[in-house]
Give the backbone structure.
Amino acid sequence: MNYSYWELKNWFSNVDFTIIGSGIVGLNTAIYLQEKYPKSKILVLEKGLLPNGASTKNAGFACFGSISEIIDDLKTHSEEEVYNLVQKRWKGLQLLRENLGDTNIGFRQYGGYELFSNKDSLFEKCVENQIKINQLLKPIFKQNVFSTCENKYGFENVKNNYFFNQYEGQIDTGKMMSELIKCAHLEGIKVLNNVEVTNISDNGEIELNNDFSFKTNKVLIATNGFANQFLNEDLQPARAQVLVTKPIKNLQIKGIFHLEKGYYYFRNIDNRILFGGGRNLDFKTEETNEFGLTTLVQNKLEELLKTTILPNQNFEIEHRWSGIMGVGNQKKAIVKQVSDNIYCGVRLGGMGVAIGSLIGKELAEIV
């Protein structure tokens, strides 16, 4: 690439911090670094036209874990680890709201619900563990988190009761990212889009698009599901597929909803239903950093819309897309120094809205 003197001088010279990824973590890291080092020059590099992983492609759930997910996590994590996970997600959500403002992110606290299939005994297992889970989380919320309620929205082929969580809400993902980008620009942070980082050296040399390189003092990797090209960590990409209906007249459904241990999730947005998930139908295929849709998952989402969520209503699908998350064997995010000049904040485990602000802050603090 043939850059001019002005381009090299203003964008690629004397760079203090270069952040790879302009999603929730990347922009929060940049903003906190700018506050910490107000005279520093910060450059954010983004592979896509918009943040390319999950930050602008998620479902906009301001959630911290359904009761069945928390029970499931206790099989592979200690009570202390699960407590810390939920506490960090809750703190992260408060930080997001505090930093950007509820109006600017379209925050609505309609609550969160978990539905249970008639075909299994998961609901009964959650009832058995309800007191235990509420007691575990009580120090965070000061009262019980999970209660049961009746099926007031007319869902079919599910239990007559489901679990309710008053603390969960929803946001407008597009508004959130627009506000973050605006905050970064106001701080004087330089954000470049459509730039692919093809190599990072320990000495701070970054290669772009295989044809240009520049030096930076510190490199911070915040690409989550795409980070394994730069890191040797317990981290795999995980694709999530989503669809949105056309507007539905007199739609009564309000809130965020989890089904089948959270592998399916839906919500109301602009008189539409947004519905995503189905990764559990074919984990191997969905363990990819390639965007795309599969007939298997999309057909299942439409089937569940017809049989469970909107059983007596006509609807049409207007949008379909996919996003890439970063997951691993453990749910705790990886925030660490990788080498003398390289740091990372990755593996958000599908909880980017909840913990992205906090991970960005933590990443800035360790530099």
Remarks:
- The two ends are 31 Å apart (CA to CA).
